[in-house]
């Protein structure tokens, strides 16, 4: 099960780095995606990484602002978020997928406010 951490309250323009620590499955075989869900809205995809980390992709809304990475030796994926805006306020979820196997984390709250 992935476990997210690193969320919190940050001022506009600030940065946060979220972590997704995995256990109980072969992390290095799984692609990782980050999603977010703001109050009253549907969950939306934010960023994706291949199992090796060699391929990454981003939603247009966060391209150039967020960076996904992973350290397979530590069974951990990251989401570096810069230049945060109030519109980035949401619960951020980590999703691990390998063929028909998938796991969701419990989410971590990110609040961008002055």
Verbal overview:
The chain has strands at 3-5, 8-10, 16-21, 31-37, 44-49, 56-58, 66-71, 76-81, 90-98, 101-104, 108-112. The mean pLDDT is 97. The strands form two sheets. Strands 2, 4, 5, 6, 9, 10 and 11 form a seven-stranded mixed beta sheet that branches. It has a four-stranded antiparallel beta sheet with strand order 1-3-8-7, with no helix packed on it. It has 114 residues and is mainly beta. The termini are far apart. β5 and β6 form a beta hairpin. Helices cover 0% and strands 51% of the residues.
Query: Ends: how far apart?
Result: 33 Å
Radius of gyration: 13 Å
Query: Mean pLDDT across all residues, rounded?
Result: 97
Helix content: under 10%
Strand content: over 45%
* Count of helical stretches: 0
Outline: globular
Alpha-beta classification: mainly beta
Low-confidence stretches: none
């Amino acid at each position: 099960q992935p476990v997210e951490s690193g969320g919190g309250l940050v001022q506009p323009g600030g940065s946060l780095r979220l972590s997704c620590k995995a256990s109980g499955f072969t992390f290095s075989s799984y692609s990782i995606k980050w999603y977010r869900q703001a109050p009253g809205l549907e969950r939306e995809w934010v960023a994706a990484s291949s199992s090796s980390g060699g391929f990454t992709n981003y939603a247009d809304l966060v391209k150039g602002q967020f960076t996904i990475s992973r350290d397979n030796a530590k069974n951990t994926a990251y989401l570096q978020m810069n230049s945060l805006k109030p519109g980035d306020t949401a619960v951020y979820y980590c999703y691990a997928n390998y063929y028909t196997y998938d796991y969701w984390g419990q989410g971590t709250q990110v609040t961008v406010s002055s």
